[in-house]
Design goal:
Mss4-like_sf, about 140 residues, EC 1.8.4.12, peptide-methionine (R)-S-oxide reductase activity, mainly beta, Met_Sox_Rdtase_MsrB, peptide-methionine (R)-S-oxide reductase
């Protein structure tokens, strides 16, 4: 397995040293950033979205769409093995949590069957602070 795909395992202390307090809260403690506050909510920049914690490729701008929900939305991950899905029963409801497959960081949630005109009818609702966009400078 190459380095870009090998699992990342760090202690809580190591994560705290590498991440800002907000990044740590979202990525490692499953917090949620305030709606409409993230840097990627409305961006239309062409590129690849990576995990802010481990740099794994997660989503591409070609699968990003405007859902008007307050967080960046994607209808499909860049690679089906890039994320893992977990049942989340917090907040008195059942949701599907999305985590980075490489470092197990919390990214957001995925919702299905909401009727968006996308090929998958899924909305990966992802915290901006969990992502880092690598812009494709070859597209102007």
């Amino acid at each position: 397995m190459d380095d870009a795909r090998s699992p990342v395992e760090k202690t809580e202390r190591e994560w705290r040293a590498e991440l800002s307090p907000e990044e740590f809260a979202v990525l490692r403690q499953a917090a949620t950033e305030r709606p409409w506050s993230g840097e990627y909510v409305s961006t239309t920049t062409v590129g690849v979205y990576h995990c802010r914690a481990c740099d794994a490729e997660l989503f591409r701008s070609t699968e990003k769409f405007e859902s008007h929900c307050g967080w960046p939305s994607f209808y499909d991950p860049a690679d089906s093995s890039a994320v893992t899905l977990h049942e989340d029963r917090s907040l008195g409801m059942i949701r599907t949590e999305v985590r980075c497959a490489r470092c197990d960081s919390h990214l957001g949630h995925v919702f299905r069957g909401e009727g968006y005109p996308t090929p998958t009818d899924e909305r990966y609702c992802i915290n901006s602070v969990a992502l880092r966009l690598e812009a494709d400078d070859s597209v102007a």
